[in-house]
Amino acid sequence: MIEREVTIINRLGLHMRAAGKFARMAAQFRSSVNILRDGLAVDGKSIVGLLTLAAAQGSTLTLRIDGADEEAAFTALKELMDSRFGEDQ
Amino acid sequence: MSGQEPPSTDKSPPRPSRSLRGIGASRGIAAAPCLVLESGELAVFRMAISAADVDDEVRRFRSAVQTAGEQITNLQEMFEQEHRDTAGSIFDAQRLLLDDETLMAGAERTIRAQKMNAEWALRMELHHLTQSFAGVPERERLLENVDDVEGRIQKILAGNQHHNLSELTEDVVIVANKLSPSETALLRVPHVVGLATDKGGPSSHTVIVAKALGIPAVVGLHELSERVSSGDLIVVDGSRGIVILNPTQADVARSQTMMQEFRRGEEERLLALRDLKAETLDGFRVEIHANIELEEQLDAVIRYGAEGIGLYRSEFLFLHRSPYLPTEEDHYEAYRKMATALAPRVVTIRTLDLGGEKYFHAVLKKDENNPVLGMRAIRFCLMNKDIFKTQLRGILRATLHGNVRVMFPLISGVEEFRLARAVLTEAMDELESEGVPFDRGIKVGLMIEVPSAAAVADLLAREADFFSIGTNDLIQYTLAIDRSNESVAYLYRPLHPAIIRTVKFTVDAARAAGIPVAMCGEMASDPIIVPILLGLGLNELSMDAVYIPSVKAAIRALTAVEAREMVEEILRLATASEVEQYADRRILPRLRQAVPQLVEGSGTWAI
């Protein structure tokens, strides 16, 4: 199991479309993906879970990934967030 | 649809015809049986189920979710063929919700743990979910989608087939409490001839679609959907903002004639005007321009004989991409295409007019108490110079491909105009230093739509290259009417003497300074008002393309001299009602032959 902190850097934060991309990406891996924030844990494969985090730009989240492909999953998800979910800013 | 005949002993008189006033949202008139779309809020009850039935109930739930997914896929395909730009954003969110295992597994757990019916389990799960959405970006849009998805699943569970309007074989008027985004998408079928809803202001998504389709719509009718049943005959008069229940034969005949004329014969006849100039009998020339928002409308602009584009609403470039913003290339490409297609005709691009009562984008703040008076349009652009300058650079680059001019919306005075112009100059200097070619001689104008700008029109006229009077906002701000507010919409009177005087002052100021003055609000598209505008001395009128033939016909039926005489008389009248009566008594008869579809009361057109 890996547990690492990540930061949301796109301007709009984890909005509907960004959360959708995250959930789709997470669902491609066999590992379980959970996101922890302020004691709340949500399923990273669920758009509604992600949205309830209401993570704005600058929020720090903990990714907890557990399974055979956990490293690959982390790398892919981190890349998605660092690329601002493909948004301009 | 044909109900039981009432017992013949009681020969009750026919129910009286009755008209309801709403907000006219898309012009035209239609008479047809109505089709009442149930609102998404189906009555959902809690029912206990036996332990033995739990597995079946879960299967029933899962299969409904799957069917809903298939429906969305079909809808998406259907819609994508017609409108590739917006399809993704409307349906993607619903797809994601339906695919969401946390959500669906949650409902399944509830069915199993509490031994309750699928309908109630879904309702509980979604209720729980939406509670936790406080603070989520784009919350309203999300909730709209959640409602839509729930409504769809509930209907399937209840055994109701979702309305499939494309199977209609006869004309109908759609009546609904309100329409969800996916229902609105369904309106793009041949037999939907009108639209009437209980809720909604004149700028909701539904209305934008109705206008684009050219079908009459009236919104804000309160409890209409409860007062009529599918199959009842109804008249929707979007021009006057009324709906007639139990219409008399005369009502129906009149509206059918008008509808047919409007749609076919008249349109054909008026299309013949396409290549004729908009010129009065005594040789006064008015330029007729079109208002557009989508590239797809360019064909209509040419077909109806517009001499240019008087208002390009650039908001749609932004809305389609929300939450993203258009890049400089997006802007440039859109403007280049228009300029090229219409050259040498003029293309007037209004810079971003986001906010206020319409046009939401993720970049806007949601929590303004009074958005119409808030951070919108040019105010927003001056606060977000990067967004503004990106657009201006795109516009400037397009100047090489045709006759492009630019105007700023919602300018409140000279200072704001100078600030906006300064950003334009910055954009020019940047492009120049980068060696990007453009035409520095671009004409720079502004919208006169805030009363304070109209009051200093003489000062603005010294600095601007042209004016364009935006009557929708000007009326709203001058008369202090929120026209999306159903309770006060009746006060929205284009022919209020205050409006006529404000327009007069603006036109006089522009003419004294020798700059052209246009009108691009909806007032400019009303043939009965056009003689007044002519008499006031406007040089250009810009409107949705479909109205061009009627307006041209009206102009060609008059002399400028008589129009000026009419204005002199009108300026002596004290109330909006007096001016409206004057229009009905004096102007209408003059135009009846040229524009036969005109009816009395047009001066009270709500929009």
Question: If you had to describe this structure to a student in words, what would you say it looks like?
Answer:
The complex is a heterodimer of chains A (89) and B (607). Chain A has 89 residues and is an alpha+beta fold. Chain A has one domain: HPr-like (Histidine-containing Protein, Chain: A), CATH 3.30.1340.10. Chain A is built from 3 helices and 4 strands. In chain A, strand 2 and strand 3 form a beta hairpin. In chain A, helix 1 packs antiparallel against helix 3. Chain A is globular and about 35 Å long. The mean pLDDT of chain A is 89. The N terminus and C terminus of chain B are likely disordered. Chain B has 607 residues and is of the alpha/beta class. Chain B has an 8-stranded mixed β-sheet. Chain B has an 8-stranded parallel beta barrel with strand order 9-10-11-12-13-14-15-16, surrounded by 4 helices.
Strands of the biggest beta sheet of chain A: in what spatial order? Answer: 1-4-2-3
Mean pLDDT reading of chain A: 89
Write the element-wise H/E pattern of chain A from the N-terminal end onward.
EHEEHEH
How much strand of chain B?
A: 5-15%
CATH class of the domain at 314-442 in chain B: Alpha Beta
Shape of chain B: globular
Count the E strands of chain B.
16
Q: Specify the structural class of chain B.
A: alpha/beta
CATH superfamily of the domain at 314-442 in chain B: Phosphoenolpyruvate-binding domains
Shape category of chain A: globular
- Major sheet size, sense and barrel closure of chain A: 4 strands, antiparallel
The overall pLDDT average of chain B reads 83
CATH topology title of the domain at 314-442 in chain B: TIM Barrel
CATH class of chain A, please? Answer: Alpha Beta
Q: In percent, how helical is the residue content of chain B?
A: 40-55%
Helix content of chain A: 25-40%
Give the class of chain A from helix and strand content and strand pairing.
Answer: alpha+beta
